[in-house]
TrEMBL record:
Alphabetical UniProt keywords: Membrane, Transmembrane, Transmembrane helix
Entry-linked NCBIfam families: sss (TIGR00813)
Family matches, as InterPro entries: Na/Glc_symporter_sf, Na/solute_symporter
Taxonomy, superkingdom: Bacteria
Primary location class: membrane
Record-given protein name: Na+/galactose cotransporter
One Pfam short name: SSF
Membrane spanning stretches: 20-37, 57-78, 90-111, 132-154, 166-186, 193-211, 249-269, 290-315, 343-370, 391-410, 416-441, 448-468, 480-503, 540-557
Subcellular location: Membrane
PROSITE patterns cross-referenced by the UniProt entry: NA_SOLUT_SYMP_3
CDD domains: SLC5sbd_u2
Protein family per UniProt: Belongs to the sodium:solute symporter (SSF) (TC 2.A.21) family.
Organism in which the protein naturally occurs: Streptomyces cahuitamycinicus
Organism placement in taxonomy: Bacteria, Bacillati, Actinomycetota, Actinomycetes, Kitasatosporales
GO molecular function: D-glucose:sodium symporter activity
């Protein structure tokens, strides 16, 4: 899949004063939220986790907005123009099950242990080695991913509005820096709620007008079935083992590679997402956060898929040598062709909001991990709480500046979406295997966490940079290499953890209470407060999960 690194030059949008006014109002509101949230920041817990005080509907919408970056919007529309309805797998197979698993199974461990970050949980479950390594890897990955969002924003804005790349990078970086520095995580989360609705306001008119242009869903389906084949408009057609399909993957690869390894690795251990749930006001709200987010996730796929399918009808040769338009141009092309001024301003604002949401999620999680897991634990320990709030603001500025630097590093990669998946296979998948084994196997020793994480990350990198890049093993594409790297990282991490555990001492049982499945936290010795019972004893929460999973399982097979 091509990334939005080179949009067609002729896609310059006919924006006017009305569109820029809408954009200006949005930026003013963003800063206003930052100033309003500043008054609520009195402690480090307020700055880094919103004082654990936010309602579930706020954290749920922020959870989904943090993921709904414009790299996903443009990339998944491009995916649809190239592969068709197979794009649904990235949502219904590659997201929903993992989100439900996070809410029902993993959030009690995260929230119940009162950790402030994902790496801090590894400190409690394993030792300082696992904690420090995971914190360093996550902080590094967060800055790289924030830079990807900034660079993608710059190239889109340059193509659509004519702004130079460096101007777009600096302007977006400044606004993200301003509102996170002012209001901490609360500012980021409330802005993400706003950004979620702005993104919907941009995508809904585009999808509706696009469908109207091609004769509705029936007209769209008939046109693409005739030109691209019947499998192009199905989720599972042609995915039998040994069968050919536009995606080039069978059902086993989709379910195991995307649906398990990469999906669970991302959604359950990526602190940029988990941080939103940790800011909820109680365990019940924390568990409902990913479940609430899963409902719009089920349907958002239509808003990113339909524009790609419409573009494939309107520009039959899109993405081929016979067309000036690449797959990544699908949404910009429809914006130029279908949207009037005013609505066009909302659409441009929606794209900018999406980029800023993705960057802000990574920057806010970076400042928390660097301050609480690295600086306060290993560099400057035991200082007053106000010091760490001040340092958190300082490291936020440093993180944004570093993101601007890595934005230009992303220029060297020809495929930004593949680059993101590469980072996930390096950093999220090894973390996931350490968490899963640590949470479900009491015998996993203190030392196994560090060595499992190191082995998984190393194996994924060796597969990508040595076996794949040096053509030692023939893998047809970057995306395929990412799947293999993820599997290699998962297997290597698991094998090393088991081997190390067999030869090193396990953690004392009394120190594992509330950290391993089947144990009870010392703080839960008394009857739990309403809403804090185990997930399997709460019919309402199970109902949320069941409805989400049922919808996610039913919809794909209806295509």
């Amino acid at each position: 899949m091509r990334s939005p690194t080179q949009l067609a030059a002729e896609l310059r949008l006919p924006t006017n004063w009305l569109d820029y006014t809408i954009l200006g109002i949005y930026f003013a509101v963003v800063l206003g939220i930052g100033f309003a949230a500043r008054s609520s920041v009195k402690t480090s817990l307020d700055f880094f986790l919103s004082g654990r005080s936010l309602p579930a509907w706020v954290t749920g919408l922020a959870f989904i907005a943090a993921n709904l970056g414009a790299t996903e919007i443009l990339g998944m529309a491009a995916n649809s123009a190239q592969y068709g309805v197979y794009t649904t797998h990235w949502y219904w197979i590659g997201a929903i099950p993992a989100m439900v698993f996070l809410g029902l199974v993993m959030m009690p461990f995260y929230y119940g242990s009162k950790v402030r970050s994902v790496p801090e949980f590894l400190l409690l479950r394993f030792d300082k080695g696992a904690h420090l390594l995971s914190a360093i890897l996550f902080a590094f990955a967060a800055i790289l991913i924030a830079g990807v969002n900034l660079y993608a924003l710059a190239i889109v804005v340059e193509a659509l509005l004519g702004w130079p790349e460096w101007v777009a990078i600096v302007v977006a970086g400044f606004f993200v820096l301003a509102y996170i520095t002012l209001g901490g995580l609360s500012s980021a989360i409330y802005n993400e709620v706003l950004q979620f609705f702005v993104i919907l306001a941009a995508l809904i008119p585009l999808s509706v007008l696009g469908l109207k242009k091609v004769g509705g869903w029936d007209g769209l389906s008939d046109s693409l079935t005739e030109s691209r084949g019947a499998d192009f408009m199905t989720s599972w057609g042609g995915t039998g083992i040994g069968s050919d399909n536009p995606l080039g993957a069978n059902w086993l690869t989709i379910v195991l590679g995307l649906g398990f390894v990469l999906s669970f690795g991302y959604w359950t251990t990526n602190f940029a997402e988990v941080q939103r749930a940790l800011s909820a006001k109680n365990l019940s709200a924390a568990q409902r956060t990913p479940l609430i987010a899963a409902f719009p996730k089920i349907f958002i796929v239509f808003l990113v898929m339909i524009p790609g399918l419409v573009a494939a009808v309107l520009v039959p040769r899109i993405g081929t040598s016979g067309s000036d338009l690449q797959y990544n141009d699908a949404i910009p092309y429809l914006m130029e062709q279908l949207l009037p001024n005013g609505v066009l301003g909302v659409a441009v604002t929606g794209l900018l909001a999406a980029f800023m949401a993705g960057m802000a999620a990574n920057v806010s999680s970076f400042n928390t991990v660097f301050t609480t897991d690295i600086w306060a634990k290993y560099v400057v320990r035991g200082r007053e709480d106000e010091y760490y709030v001040r340092f958190g603001r300082l490291i936020t500025a440093i993180g944004v500046l570093a993101s601007i630097g890595t934005a230009f590093l992303a220029r060297s990669f020809s495929n930004i979406m593949a680059y993101l998946q590469t980072l996930f296979s390096f950093f999220n998948v090894p973390m996931f295997v350490v968490f899963v084994i640590g949470m479900f196997w009491k015998r996993a020793s203190m030392k196994s966490g560090f060595w499992g994480l190191l082995a998984g990350t190393t194996a994924a990198m060796v597969n990508y940079f040595v076996l794949y890049k040096q053509d030692v093993v023939g893998i047809p594409s970057d995306q395929g290499a990412n799947f293999v790297s993820a599997i290699a990282g998962f297997v290597a991490g698991a094998v090393v953890m088991v081997a190390v555990s067999l030869f090193t001492a396990p953690k004392p049982s009394e120190e594992l209470q509330g950290l391993v499945y089947g144990t009870t936290s010392p703080g839960m010795a008394e009857p739990p407060a309403p809403g804090d019972e185990a997930w399997y004893r709460r019919p309402a929460l199970l109902g949320w999960g069941a409805v989400v999973l049922a919808a996610a399982c039913y919809i794909p097979f209806s295509f």
